[in-house]
Amino acid sequence: MSEVGARISSGLATDENLAEAVAHVRRFESRTPSIALILGSGLGSLAESAEDVFVLQAVDIPGYPGSMVEGHRGALVFGRLAGREVVFIQGRAHVYEGHPIGAVTLPVRLAHALGARSLVVTNAAGGINRTFKPGTLMFITDHIRLWHRKLLAGGMMTCDLYWSGLHTPYDLDWTDRAEQAALRMGVGTRRGVYLWTGGPSYETKAEISAFTRLGADAVGMSTVPEVIQARALGMRVLGISTITNPAAGLSPVPLSHEEVLAVARRMRAELEVLVHSVVREAPVSPA
């Protein structure tokens, strides 16, 4: 295995790795993105809507975490979207794959080091709110994290950084503007609270009952670590969940990852319009 491959498989994400990752990217791409977009399960093709694109494979970036999950092809895609310089983080790594938190959040630190001061996070999620049918696009207004101790234990950040910005993890002013722009373009959205579980298993009926009582509208296995890291860096964050299925405890039949990917692909056109609205309405200054 190559030295780079060994670093990726080990999941290390030190400051040295970050400096090496930035240097590697700058050998190929000099543009400064103002917005980073993390593309969730089945949503990687959204990067194809950008102009003047340059693709950098994640496997070649020192320290960059690899993903083994279908629908998460790893790459950084630089381009212009809605008149803004952006970088797509195409494919994310997950804690349940065995990566430490520091590795999972390296792409956010890398995007920030390259100049991004705003972050859009997308994911495919199970709907807990019974009015959220498959195909619903949900702006995330807050989240519930069940693994908060592991975030600290993983060495992602100091306690001071961990606490910064978490009373307002998602930029609601940005959400308001994006929501209105989407409506003008004929795309309806909902708002809700996202609950993060470690995964990789789907939820039991008892868990969904508990999550409902906690106030969650959707559930998934990603996003929250990246959001916490972004807020610790002072980035503005907007979140979008594509509700691809009823949460496992609400479904009359067993769920599958293939079903999640199929609905995500079906929603591509509508989500693409929404993402353009989000980017167009993005703030130009850090939080």
Helix count equals: 11
* Strand arrangement in the largest pleated sheet: 5-8-7-6-9
Q: Could you state the order of secondary-structure elements as H and E?
A: HHEEEEHHEEHHHEHEHEHH
Overall form: globular
Quick one: CATH class?
Alpha Beta
Content-based structural category: alpha/beta
Name the CATH superfamily classification.
Answer: Nucleoside phosphorylase domain
CATH fold-level topology: Rossmann fold
Task: Tell me, rounded to a whole number, the average pLDDT.
Answer: 83
- Largest sheet data: 5 strands, mixed, barrel
Number of strands: 9
Radius of gyration computed on alpha carbons: 18 Å
Low-confidence stretches: 1-13, 152-161
Please give the domain count.
Answer: 1
Separation of termini? 41 Å
β-strand percent reads 15-25%
CATH A-level architecture: 3-Layer(aba) Sandwich
What is the percent of helical residues? Answer: 25-40%
In brief:
With about 290 residues, the chain is α/β, with parallel strands linked by helices.
Describe the protein.
By secondary structure, this protein is α/β, with parallel strands linked by helices. It has a single domain (3-280), classed as 3-Layer(aba) Sandwich (Rossmann fold), CATH 3.40.50.1580. 34% of the residues lie in helices and 23% in strands. It contains 11 helices and 9 strands. It has helices at 3-10, 15-26, 101-104, 106-113, 148-153, 159-163, 172-184, 205-214, 224-232, 257-266, 268-280; strands at 35-39, 51-57, 75-81, 84-90, 118-127, 137-145, 190-196, 218-220, 236-246. Strands 5-8-7-6-9 form a 5-stranded mixed beta barrel, surrounded by 4 helices. Helix 7 (172-184) packs across helix 11 (268-280). The longest helix is centred in the middle third of the chain and has 13 residues, at 172-184. The protein is globular and about 50 Å long. The model is unreliable at 1-13 and 152-161 (pLDDT under 50).
